[in-house]
């Protein structure tokens, strides 16, 4: 079991914050998080590209290259692998592992389960040590129908963990945990179960997705509104030197 995989089997769930650039990743690591994920929305928005359309392969790889050698464990949100060809997805996973990533998140977008399973198999063949977090969008894009069948297929294909964003009902989450043989990843939402509640349900990994990126953008808009109104912005504002130090600090 790799160090990253072991974080999914401790007494407390792995809380995985998601960064969108070098500074945000280093700031989160400085808060004591042993592992950092990336957010595809943040990567796409920073590049002026739409999220979820397989257009950010190069940007994602560049970010992984910038972050993969840092003193924390990096898991990369790779959307659907940026291809419908499992071999291409496997090659991308190999590139991620080469630059230091330890995990990859792959979403099925409610496409054919057999195709997603084939991608998982290709990733495990190309980069055996990479932790594959197989995401199904049955709740994110649908009503939850077919979730168990998809998760069974992904487990059998070799997924190290599974991710079901959008499910918030405690009873449904608990049922998923009981059904699975691998760790369950849930997306934290402000209106869903709290971290302690998710832990009690048996969830082993809790992701923040694009929440931090959206909150940072919201804070920027709030600050400029305060300044425009003649008031001093509230909240925590890192100094120029603190932010600059994130890029100057050696890895």
Précis, in short:
Helix content is 45%, strand content 14%.
Structure description:
This protein is of the alpha/beta class. It has one domain: Phosphoenolpyruvate-binding domains (TIM Barrel, Alpha-Beta Barrel), CATH 3.20.20.60. It has a nine-stranded parallel sheet with strand order 1-9-8-7-6-5-4-3-2. The chain is globular and about 60 Å long.
Structural class: alpha/beta
Q: How many domains, in number, for the residues?
A: 1
**Radius of gyration, in angstroms, nearest whole number:** 18 Å
CATH class division: Alpha Beta
Give the total of beta strands. Answer: 9
Largest sheet: 9 strands, parallel
Protein name: Phosphonomutase
Organism: Streptomyces caeruleatus
Pfam families: PEP_mutase (PF13714)
GO molecular function: catalytic activity
Q: What is the strand and helix layout of this fold?
A:
Blueprint (H helix, E strand, L loop, with lengths): L2 H4 L7 E3 L1 E2 L2 H9 L4 E4 L1 H8 L9 H11 L5 E5 L8 H13 L4 E5 L5 H14 L4 E5 L11 H10 L4 E3 L6 H10 L4 E4 L7 H7 L3 E3 L3 H18 L11 H9 L3
Parallel strand pairs: 1-9, 2-3, 3-4, 4-5, 5-6, 6-7, 7-8, 8-9
Offer a few descriptive terms.
alpha/beta, 11 helices, 9 strands, 9-stranded parallel β-sheet, 251 residues, TIM Barrel, globular
